[in-house]
């Protein structure tokens, strides 16, 4: 083979390429005798920058605050939420199965605790939380166990205050106690209302039913003003009417259970009663037929209550277990205790009205 002639590198890339081939075939570092070493010294190749796409990817833990961590955190938050929905759906299907098969309990008063907690209170709770925005005070005055008689003022043209008080006790008491209300005869004469009232735990306002519930250790609610309180004109708002004959005091004395006064502010303004169509009320068999600024002038829309701000305060208990059993037959003691409960409720109403900023806020 002929000896390759060394030609210095110049700008002619095609010529330089042809001349370098024999040198590469001889191998790096080889030289012919007599050739200058500097001419054939192999220069080191510059370090090749590896493109970003060629760099192998290594999985690492995402840094704090990185998008990957944010996405992972969001996924972790979403997972329990999905599980919560699954549990709700499973619970709802299980509830329907028990209702269809009759596998649920109802006491001798007709009270259905499961239906009340999962359906009836769920229907009333948005009105309680979002519409009337009920604020509850003094819930610690309600005992954790055992019977107690809660006595409250009554107002509002329609008995929504009783329902709000029932939700207030259940949702705010640490033990989620249920309030069994004593209702008037009219409630149990109405076709649909009768069944719903029984399912929700309400019973007839009589001493026998109240004593049976208190003996079982239940919370019993009573509104002694009755229709005189709920149907009074707007001009007499927050002025307590007569508390009947004090039968609730006699019941509490017989059972030795505490009496808890309860004051409700906000219910008086939901249907401002400016008139009473007594003739129409007698024809319909109602104790009164209310006339408000919106009813009956606006038809069904007039039945929508005004969104007032409510406050429900439970006062300190009045103990009755220190009296002898025959005290329930003492008319003077019954009168004094009845007047004491009434005065405590009235005083609290005035105090709450002074503290209230507005009817609606």
From TrEMBL:
**Keyword match Hydrolase:** no
Q: Name one GO molecular function term.
A: acyltransferase activity
- What does UniProt give as GO cellular component? membrane
Q: Where is the composition biased (Basic residues)?
A: 22-31
Domain Phospholipid/glycerol acyltransferase, chain residue ranges per copy:
148-267
Per its UniProt entry, which superkingdom is the organism in? Bacteria
Q: From which residue to which does the signal peptide run?
A: none
UniProt keyword annotation of Transferase present: yes
- Give one Pfam hit by family name: Acyltransferase
Region described as Disordered: 1-80
The cross-references to SUPFAM superfamilies, in alphabetical order and at most eight, read: Glycerol-3-phosphate (1)-acyltransferase (SSF69593)
Which keywords does the record carry? Acyltransferase, Transferase
Name this protein carries in UniProt? Glycerol acyltransferase
Q: Which organism is it from?
A: Streptomyces dioscori
Q: What is the lineage of its organism?
A: Bacteria, Bacillati, Actinomycetota, Actinomycetes, Kitasatosporales
């Amino acid at each position: 083979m002929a000896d390759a002639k060394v030609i210095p590198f110049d700008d002619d890339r095609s010529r330089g390429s042809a001349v370098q081939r024999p040198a590469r075939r001889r191998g790096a570092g080889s030289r012919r005798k007599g050739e200058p070493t500097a001419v054939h010294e192999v220069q080191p190749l510059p370090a090749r920058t590896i493109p970003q796409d060629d760099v192998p990817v290594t999985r690492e833990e995402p840094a704090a605050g990185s998008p990957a961590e944010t996405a992972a955190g969001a996924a972790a938050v979403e997972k329990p939420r999905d599980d919560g929905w699954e549990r709700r759906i499973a619970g709802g299907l299980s509830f329907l199965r028990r209702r269809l098969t009759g596998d649920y309990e109802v006491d001798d008063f007709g009270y259905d605790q499961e239906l009340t907690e999962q359906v009836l209170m769920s229907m009333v709770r948005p009105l309680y939380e979002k519409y009337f925005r009920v604020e509850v005070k003094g819930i610690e005055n309600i005992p954790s166990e055992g019977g107690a008689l809660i006595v409250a003022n009554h107002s509002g043209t329609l008995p929504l205050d009783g329902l709000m008080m029932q939700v207030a006790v259940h949702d705010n008491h640490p033990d989620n106690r249920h309030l069994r209300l004593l209702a008037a005869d009219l409630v149990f004469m109405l076709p649909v209302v009768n069944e719903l009232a029984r399912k929700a735990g309400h019973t007839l306002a009589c001493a026998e039913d109240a004593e049976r519930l208190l003996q079982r250790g239940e919370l019993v609610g009573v509104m002694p003003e009755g229709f005189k309180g709920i149907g009074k004109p707007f001009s007499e708002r927050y002025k307590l009417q007569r508390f009947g004959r004090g039968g609730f005091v006699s019941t509490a004395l017989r059972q030795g259970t505490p009496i808890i006064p309860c004051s409700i502010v906000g219910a008086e303004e939901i249907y401002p009663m400016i008139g009473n169509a007594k003739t129409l009320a007698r024809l319909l068999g109602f104790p009164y037929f209310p006339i408000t600024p919106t009813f009956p002038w606006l038809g069904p829309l007039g039945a929508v209550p005004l969104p007032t701000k409510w406050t429900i305060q439970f006062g300190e208990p009045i103990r009755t277990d220190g009296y002898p059993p025959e005290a329930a037959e003492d008319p003077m003691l019954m009168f004094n205790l009845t007047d004491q409960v009434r005065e405590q409720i009235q005083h609290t109403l005035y105090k709450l009205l002074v503290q209230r900023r507005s009817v609606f806020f």
